User: Fold Amine oxidase domain-containing protein from Methanosarcina mazei.
Amino acid sequence: MKIVIIGSGLAGLSAGYRLCKSDEVIIFEKDPDIGGMSASYSIENEGKKYFIEKYYHHIFRSDSELLALIKELGLEKQMLWLKGKNAYFVDGKNYPMNTPVEILHFSPLSILDLAKLGMLVLRIKLIKDTAPYDRIKAKEWILDTAGKSVYENFFAPLMKSKFGDNAENVSAAWVIGRVKIRSDRGAEGEKLGYMRGGFNSLIEALVGEITANGGEIRTDREVTEIVIKDSAVQGVKVNGDFIPCDAVISTAEPAVLDAITGGKLGDLHETLKSIRYQGTACALIGLDRSLMEDGNYWLNIKADVPFGAVIEHTNFLPFDDYGENLVYVTSYFQDRKSPLWTQKDTDVIDSYLKGLEKMFPKFSRKDVRWTRLYRRMDTAPVYEQGYLGKVLPFAAGPSGLYLAGMFSSSNYPERSMNGSVKAGFQSVELLRKEKEKTGYDEK
Assistant:
């Protein structure tokens, strides 16, 4: 079979990797770089070249499909499991949030409130099925379960930084999923996974396997139409050219999928229009000195600054791997009218640097070596109340059209690199089942 895959993120590459030994695979990527949200910068520092993700990433021990893929590709020796120190910046002060003892010193909450927070986390750990919580708003559930102070002084700022004006519409299922994925920690805190040399090694290994087996990956090629006739995929149009194929796996976000199928997906058409995505403006800054001298990796923020989190990569990975301090500053936005989307890169960076100056008195722009800004409109779905009913199926309806991505069930109720790998694999499993029914010959 000849199979077109739309998008070279982890879902698309994972699907291509699974298919390339048995089928003819062509991956079209609209951007100049391969990798989607997992793409990396190539940085030169004093004659040394290294790769660093455009958007920060780490993985968890529960990411079984991703870890199995890394092992399958012979990259397991590059895996590191390191302690990532977390803190919460509130009213001008950093509060470490790694161990039970540190959390007990989080003074914005009373002892009673901290007990309620602890009971909430314990309750979340015991929840096996998040589906019943999908139609409950997170705000209402937290207020009912842990009280006003826990919501307003702990959860509300985090949800606001993550979802902006949509924060109060987010479901309890998302909060439960988010806490569960981040609550695997021992007495000394949480250990997170990262690949030495960056996840670019994973992307390159997947690309290498696909191309070595005859697959193609074409960048700067945007699919403008999935051609459907008589309820079956005929091919795709790319830069004005028609490319015939037997099947398409699309990882494009819902609004784009709706556009390139011309609203021909029947009942899915309305669902695609109703799923809201949000954007990200993620800055990466190279510095002469450490920003968070207390060793924090991840800093959540409750402050009047234009970003919601600061992540100091070199407080997590060894400084010697890079030879300079690397800091991510990131914010989400909800629509194309946001200044984070409309402003020039230099203006967004300037607003972020002003925020850092406000938060860190020792920070100086003289310490800044370089900056990069990565912006996308399709970073992630907004996991609103009732979102479970909008999760897209792996089979879209027309024969030969399959879907995989952040909108897939494997990325509910919270997206992850593992969820995208799993989505790519699951779309292939379904395609192969259909292939057996129709009796296509092997490549």
